[in-house]
Write a structure and sequence with these properties.
Length: 181
């Protein structure tokens, strides 16, 4: 195992590590469920968490109300776009107060000690969220999830971030929350 002094950089996930935007997804999906007349429940909310795609989430909501066959694929795309618009409106209300406790001080310390820092998040809105949190300057490397395929996402995000951060480093400590390089 690498010694802490051997660590050269850190790769962060966004949600649950730097901030928590899950509540905004929940609010936006709940708004959409209310609009289409689908019943909202704790079970539905729980099933929407954890890496479920936007279209699969929409199908869960429509199925909860027996409404899936009431909408064409085009209408479903429009509903999913509307949900994302509502979500982004909530994200745009974020401030540095939405940074999880201890993260800003940790990033300040990493930057002051010249560690390499990257963001490897499945969120397509990572740069936008970092901007609202006023953390963009801490992350010279942000892996664009649009450049990666769905399968093995975390490995691909991690490898791409590592490639940008540091070449030929063996000292990597993997954690669910962040990677230490």
């Amino acid at each position: 195992m690498a010694k802490f002094n051997d660590i050269k950089g850190f790769i962060f996930d966004l949600d649950g590590v730097i901030t928590d935007t899950a509540r905004f997804h929940t609010q936006a999906w709940h708004q959409l469920a209310d609009k289409v007349g689908a019943p909202w429940s704790q079970e539905l909310e729980d099933n929407l968490k954890g890496g479920v795609s936007r279209m699969d989430s929409l199908e869960m909501i429509l199925n909860a109300g027996g409404l899936s066959n009431n909408y064409s694929d085009e209408e479903k795309e429009q509903l999913a776009t509307e949900k994302n618009t509502n979500y982004l409106a909530l994200v745009d209300q974020m401030t540095p107060n939405d940074i999880l406790p201890g993260i800003k001080d940790f990033l300040d310390s990493l930057k002051a000690n010249h560690y390499a820092i990257a963001l490897a998040s499945a969120s397509k809105n990572g740069p936008r969220v970092l901007g609202k949190l006023e953390l963009t300057d801490y992350f010279p490397t942000i892996v664009d999830p649009a450049t990666l395929l769905k399968e093995s996402q975390i490995q691909k995000f991690t490898l791409k971030a590592l490639k940008h951060l540091i070449s030929n480093q063996n000292n990597v400590l993997v954690s669910k929350m962040l990677l230490l390089v």
